[in-house]
Amino acid sequence: MTGLAKPAPKRRLLLAGAALLLALLLLLQPVPTARRAPQVGAKVEAGVVVRGFVRVYVGGALVAEQEMHSFVWEYATRELAARVFPVPWVREWAQPLTVTWGVSDDSQGLRAATMSLKDTKGSKWGDAALDPPVFAESGFSVSASFTAPHDTNISVIEIYQPYTDVTYWDSTAYPAVVHDLMVRDYMESPVPVAGGSRVTVTYDFVFESDQPELRYEIFTYNWYRMFAAWLYNAGNGKVNVTATDGSQALVDPTRPTWDSRARNVPVDTFIVVGDGQVSFSKSAFRVAREVARAEPVVIYDSHPPPAGSVVVTRAFVFDRDVNVTEVAVYVRLTDGKEVMLLYHVLGEPVAVKAGQPFTVTFRVYLVPGL
After folding, report:
1. 3-class DSSP state for residue 27?
2. What pLDDT, in 10s, does the model give residues 130-169?
3. What is the DSSP-derived secondary structure letter of residue 104?
4. Rg for the chain (alpha carbons), in Å?
5. Could you read off the pLDDT of 305-340 as tens digits, one per residue?
6. Which of 77, 80, 171, 296 is geometrically suited to a Cys-Cys bond with 308, CB 3.0 to 4.6 A?
7. Alpha-helical segments (H) within 219-260
8. Three-class SS of residue 216?
9. Which residues pair with 209 in a beta bridge?
10. 327 CA to centre of own chain
11. C-alpha to C-alpha distances, 62 to 13, 153, 156, nearest whole angstrom
């Protein structure tokens, strides 16, 4: 088997096992100080809930809308952890065995994220590439358009993201595009569509805090864009983000060849702690004043209820007293630039004594699949 082939059953077992092993190893490692941590300490936790709304337009008129009740959890949380929050088990172990980001230019097939429509009998009658994501104040939307080939209905909507799989024949590699099912929604009532009608289906993705008092004050515009790049995993999902130095960086999940890395995607993850005086802004691109950073433990849970989640966490011990006012999640891209994705400005500073453990935990909750 080639290093970049992706047999699904074995891949799931290998990645899940690697994630658990890494979590155990990192939890057994000393926190970043020579001082032994006592048993009590402070902690900060923040969570992001991903929600979505489905809207169906026929002939330009809105004919159906409902809250989405997907992602398909078997794949989504695993891929979110592996791609957006990479840690050593992805960077050093998983990637030599499988592909976590992107479709290669030499792959045969449709190298784009796609949407499919099915009728009440389960027959697929529509299949189209997603338009590029459109960003708004509270999230982003994705759309695809279709022309009904005959009188039919919309009962099931699915979104697929592509990856490159490789087969061999007489020692020659044949890369081809394969699509993973990431989103599946069953319409509450089938939507009738007349033959020849133009149909547009839109998903609006919004992000909310799991703590009502924080409202929307955890995620940045960079997070919207990185989440979209993750969802697409293809050239039609390239996005610009703002790096911590204020410059722009293009997140590009495509790869030149099947056996090469993605052009510019996250390759490292850090939890960053700061003590600067600042108020939250979605346009923020770095902490006000950094005092510590460390590579986190990243664990994904693919079993609802209430939804599959990804946990990014790390314990710190400082050699001096610190008044923590801000915590964040940074990722480093292939080009070396760093990007802040999640940002939590504390309502009140947390006074952490020297030698006292301080734990930071971010969670991302995905809508459960059916």
Report:
1. helix
2. 999 999 988 999 999 999 999 999 999 999 988 888 888 8
3. B
4. 22
5. 445 788 999 999 999 999 999 999 999 999 999 999
6. 77
7. 221-232
8. coil
9. 48
10. 19
11. 42, 15, 17
pTM of the predicted protein model: 0.84
8-state DSSP, 108: B
Give the whole-angstrom CA distance, residue 152 versus residue 295.
51
Distance CA 116, CA 185 (A): 11
Provide the pairing of β-strand 322-333 with 338-352. Answer: antiparallel
Q: What is the DSSP letter of 131?
A: P
Counting Cβ atoms within 10 Å, is residue 23 exposed (0-12), middle (13-18) or buried (19+)?
Answer: middle
SS3 assignment, position 95: coil
Residue 11 token pair: 């891949």
Using CA atoms, how far apart are residues 185 and 187, in angstroms rounded to an integer?
A: 6
Tokens linked to 271: 């939890």
Q: Hey, what are 231's tokens? A: 């969802």
Q: What are phi and psi of 44, to 5 degrees?
A: -130, 130
Max distance between CA atoms of the chain, in angstroms, equals: 72
CA dihedral 185, 190, 194, 197 (to 10 degrees): -30
Give which of 12, 2, 17, 14 is closest to 165, Cα–Cα. Answer: 2
Residue bearing tokens 């915590």: 327
CA distances in angstroms from 193 to 89, 120, 189, 201, listed in the order given: 47, 12, 13, 13
Q: How far is CA 357 from the centre of its chain?
A: 29
Distance of CA 43 to the CA centre of its chain: 24
Residue found under tokens 């630039």: 337
Residue 370 · residue 186 · CB < 8 Å: yes
Question: Cα dist. 152→65, 83, 97, 192, 366 in Å?
Answer: 18, 38, 43, 6, 31
Cβ pair 114, 159 in contact under 8 A: yes
Question: Is 321 buried (19+), middle (13-18) or exposed (0-12) by CB count in 10 A?
Answer: exposed
Look at strands 198-209 and 239-242 and give their pairing: unpaired
Residue 334 contacts residue 340 (beta carbons within 8 Å): no
- E strand or H helix at 128: strand 124-129
Q: Is the CB of residue 216 less than 8 Å from the CB of residue 139?
A: no
* Alpha-helical regions (H) of 192-289: 221-232
| Model pLDDT for residues 95-129, shown as the tens digit of each residue | 443 446 888 898 888 888 999 999 999 999 999 99
